[in-house]
Design a protein that fits this description.
- By secondary structure, this protein is an alpha/beta fold.
- Helix 8 packs antiparallel against helix 9.
- The N and C termini lie far apart (115 Å).
- It is 40% helix and 15% strand.
- The protein is globular.
- Strands 3-6-5-4-7-10-9-11 form an eight-stranded mixed sheet, sandwiched between helices.
- It has two domains: 57 residues; 293 residues, Spore Coat Polysaccharide Biosynthesis Protein SpsA, Chain A (Alpha-Beta Complex), CATH 3.90.550.10.
- It is built from 13 helices and 13 strands.
- Helix 7 links the parallel strand 5 and strand 6.
- It is a single-pass type II membrane protein.
């Protein structure tokens, strides 16, 4: 059999050499074939390198446009090593945990800085779910330190359960959680929970009075409440260390823009010399209250190092309040008492606040006494409630 292009002839296992011309032709052909193969390999290598570089460039551009979860400073990612579902038997969506984020901004309109989460748990939906017929909600804030077993949050919930006409109000309560543990703790017992993350701040631990974290937490609260008013909802804001013992709506003033509890009350609801307490207030959503809350928030720069309550106590005399026509009323401590000035008559009291008290352990100790005092009062026969003088046994450690 003759070869097609090889220049050799194979027969009976013998090799017969062709002429030198044929040999030279074969050599030239092999040399050309080697050069062709080398050129093909070089072209392949160059092409391969080109596509690798193209792919890497595309990956870099994609990563820049859509950062991977590893590099994102997302709310849910920061808590991913834990398994809170085992602690609370609840499985919220990732978007719900992200909730709203407050990012640093030079904008003096803080409500604008808050943007909804990425799932069905938007702020608007939580508000709508919890709202009364007149679009009023009850809002409280929590961090992990206040959600420990037998701590502040447990007493808060128990007060609604044992209060006089307060059980039905619990469905209107929205818990604004400052950290993941507080959020999952809320989900374990309530429907209306909303996660609020402040970039660069961890609010999980106890915020000691007047520390930097404490001040940030208080002003974050004011900032958040602006967004609630802008969406169009009225609210009763209540600290979680306020015990709800009677329905307070019967004691609120009708059609008043802003009404607030007091540390000390001077027997006149319109007297600006009353000492307001930011831990309990009832606010109606309108242009006046939105302007007022923005003014309040912006005033923190005028009074650096002061918390929201002290700033309010200073700006309540400002001409801007009269200019916008805001109506302020102060709530009588006979109905809305606290450790600063306890209500005198348990037949009248609506709420009891663990104010004028520094230290979580002290609050817990005295709030437990408040719950016990109220249970003892409620267990008394009706006629004894009105014929006997019934006093609080608190404050004790908080005094």
């Amino acid at each position: 059999m003759d070869s097609v292009d090889g220049g050799t002839n194979c027969k009976d296992d013998e090799i017969v050499l062709e002429s030198s011309d044929h040999h030279n032709t074969s050599s030239n052909h092999h040399q050309q074939q080697k050069q062709h193969n080398r050129s093909s390999r070089e072209i392949f290598q160059i092409t391969l390198i080109f596509f690798i570089m193209l792919g890497l460039s595309g990956l870099v551009l994609y990563q820049y446009a859509y950062p991977s979860p590893f590099y994102q400073r997302s709310y849910s990612q920061s808590f991913s090593p834990r398994n809170p579902m085992k602690e609370n038997q609840s499985s919220p969506s990732r978007g719900a945990l992200q909730g709203n984020k407050i990012s640093p901004s030079n904008d003096t309109t803080p409500g604008k800085q808050i943007s909804p989460g990425n799932d069905d748990k938007t702020l608007e939906k939580v508000l709508d779910q919890a709202a009364m017929e007149d679009k009023t909600v009850i809002i409280t804030t929590l961090n992990a330190a206040w959600t420990e077993p037998n701590s502040i949050f447990d007493f808060f919930l128990e007060s609604f359960a044992i209060g006089n006409g307060t059980q039905n109000l619990l469905k209107h309560v929205i818990v604004i959680a400052f950290d993941a543990k507080a959020y999952f703790r809320c989900l374990a017992v309530l429907t209306n929970c909303y996660a609020l993350k402040t970039e660069g701040v961890d609010f999980a631990d106890e915020a000691i009075f007047m520390t930097e974290d404490y001040l940030k937490m208080m002003w974050t609260r004011i900032e958040f409440l602006i967004s609630v008013l802008e969406i169009g909802y009225n609210f009763v804001f209540t600290d979680a260390d306020v015990m709800w013992l009677r329905n307070p709506f019967h004691r609120f003033y009708s059609n008043v823009d802003f009404q607030i509890a007091c540390d000390h009350y001077w027997f006149n609801s319109t007297d600006l010399n009353n000492s307001p307490n930011g831990g309990f207030n009832y606010v109606r959503s309108n242009n006046r209250t939105i302007q007022f809350y923005k003014f309040w928030y912006k005033s923190k720069d005028k009074f650096p190092g002061q918390h929201d309550q002290d700033v309010l106590n200073m700006i309540k005399f400002d001409p801007f309040i009269n200019k916008i026509g805001l109506e302020i009323r102060f709530l009588d401590t006979a109905y809305f008492g606290g450790f600063c000035e306890p209500s005198k008559d348990l037949n009248l009291v609506c709420t009891m606040h663990a104010n004028c008290c520094i230290g979580l352990d002290n609050k817990i100790h005295d709030l437990k006494m408040v719950i016990d005092d109220w249970k003892n009062y409620m267990s008394m026969p009706g006629h004894e409630k009105f014929t006997k003088t019934i006093n609080w046994t608190v404050p004790r450690r908080c005094f």
